[in-house]
Amino acid sequence: MKENKLLVPEAISFMESYQEEFAQEFGIHFSVQETDARAKDMTKKVRKEQNKESKKKADKQQ
């Protein structure tokens, strides 16, 4: 299969930035920092829900 190669260095950087912009617009790509922040937020949310459930179970047992 033939590959399309960019021969002009400026075109390479343009295409990389274009791809990143396109992906961000459609929510496909996130930077490492954004991904880490989202993971931390999800972890906090899950832990909070687990704490609520464990408190409900403890209250029911009493």
* Count of distinct strands: 0
Outline the low-pLDDT stretches. none
Tell me the fraction of residues in β-strands, as a range.
Answer: under 5%
Distance between the termini: 69 Å
Q: Mean pLDDT, nearest integer?
A: 81
Rough outline = rod-shaped
- Report the radius of gyration as a whole number of Å: 22 Å
Structural classification = mainly alpha
Number of helices: 2
Q: What is the helix/strand order?
A: HH
Largest sheet: none
Helix content: over 70%
Structure overview:
The chain is mainly alpha-helical and 62 residues long. The protein has a domain at 30-62. It is built from two helices and no strands. The mean pLDDT is 81.
In short:
This protein is an all-alpha fold. The chain is built from two helices and no strands.
Topology:
Blueprint: H1 9-25, H2 32-61
Descriptive labels:
2 helices; rod-shaped; 62 residues; mainly alpha; single chain
